[in-house]
């Protein structure tokens, strides 16, 4: 499926302003300001400066939130987004409710507690983000993420992403009728279903260092269809 750009000149704008460069600028800005976010339940809150608000928006990390504090702007990050900035890009510190900055292992354990599938979701998220895909929540389409080639203001999402793992996914899309319904839903909104199979290769999830030993296999719906159809 070819990218569906939004309007004349959208593709040229994306090529002139690559996502890799935008993320690099964001990384530099957060490092320079010694940015520190706060854990807040199932999300992470980040106080930002005006420049960082623009960069976070352009890089598609989180969403701005309105508060009563007129002199301070805040962004709400998802768990995968926050951990990516903290662990993979090393440009964000994250503190707990006690305002003490958490190390990578403590942060990992916190996020695993909030979502038992966090290790698989994060591996899938970082796998695509490192390839400069933009990921947003896919709940409205019944999937885990939707993936964009660039900023959603310039291009429609290309993939509807489902994360599969050996643990806890025994019945997910294993029945032909479920798989067929998901494909039809994706087709109705002009998206290709992309299943990311996360294999821990016999390693657990005690700390984020395990991520290096995980592998990811991406399978498109037309490939999976030939394997699954009776």
Q: How many β-strand runs?
A: 10
Strand order of the largest sheet: 3-4-2-1-5
Report helical residue fraction: 25-40%
Stretches with pLDDT under 50, minimum 5 residues:
224-230
Main sheet: strands, sense, barrel: 5 strands, mixed
Gap between N and C termini, in Å?
26 Å
Q: Helix count?
A: 8
Mean pLDDT: 87
Organism: Salix suchowensis
EC number: 4.6.1.16
Protein name: tRNA-intron lyase
InterPro entries: tRNA_endonuc-like_dom_sf, tRNA_intron_Endo_cat-like_sf, tRNA_intron_Endonuc_cat-like, tRNA_intron_Endonuc_N, tRNA_splic
Search tags:
single chain; 230 residues; disordered C terminus
Topology diagram in text:
Layout: H1 10-16, H2 19-32, E1 36-40, E2 43-48, H3 50-59, E3 63-65, E4 73-78, H4 79-88, E5 93-95, H5 104-114, H6 118-129, E6 134-137, E7 145-148, E8 159-165, H7 176-188, E9 192-199, E10 215-220, H8 221-228
Parallel strand pairs: 1-5, 8-9
Antiparallel strand pairs: 1-2, 2-4, 3-4, 6-7, 7-8, 9-10
Short description:
The chain has 230 residues and is an alpha+beta fold. The chain contains eight helices and ten strands.
Could you explain how this protein is built, in words?
Helices cover 37% and strands 23% of the residues. The chain is an alpha+beta fold and 230 residues long. A five-stranded mixed β-sheet has the order 3-4-2-1-5. Helix 2 runs antiparallel to helix 3 (50-59) and helix 4 (79-88) packs across helix 6. The longest helix has 14 residues, at 19-32. The model is unreliable at 224-230 (pLDDT under 50).
């Amino acid at each position: 499926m070819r990218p569906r750009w939004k309007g004349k000149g959208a593709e040229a704008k994306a090529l002139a302003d690559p996502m890799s460069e935008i993320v690099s600028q964001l990384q530099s800005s957060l490092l320079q300001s010694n940015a520190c976010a706060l854990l807040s339940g199932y999300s992470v809150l980040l106080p930002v400066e005006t420049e960082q608000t623009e960069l976070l928006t352009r890089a598609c990390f989180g969403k701005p939130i309105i508060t009563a504090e007129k002199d301070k702007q805040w962004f709400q990050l998802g768990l995968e987004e926050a951990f990516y900035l903290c662990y993979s890009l090393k440009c964000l510190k994250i503190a707990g409710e006690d305002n003490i900055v958490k190390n990578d292992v403590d942060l990992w354990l916190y996020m695993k507690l909030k979502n038992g599938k966090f290790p698989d979701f994060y591996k899938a998220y970082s796998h695509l983000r490192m390839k400069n895909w933009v990921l947003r929540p896919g709940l409205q389409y019944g999937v885990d993420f939707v993936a964009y080639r660039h900023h959603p203001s310039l291009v429609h999402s290309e993939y509807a992403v489902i994360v599969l793992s050996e643990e806890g996914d025994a019945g997910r899309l294993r029945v032909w009728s479920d798989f067929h319904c998901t494909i039809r839903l994706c087709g109705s909104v002009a998206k290709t279903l992309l299943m990311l199979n996360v294999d821990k290769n016999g390693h657990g999830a005690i700390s984020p260092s395990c991520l290096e030993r995980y592998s990811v296999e991406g399978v498109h719906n037309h490939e999976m269809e030939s394997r699954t159809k009776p």
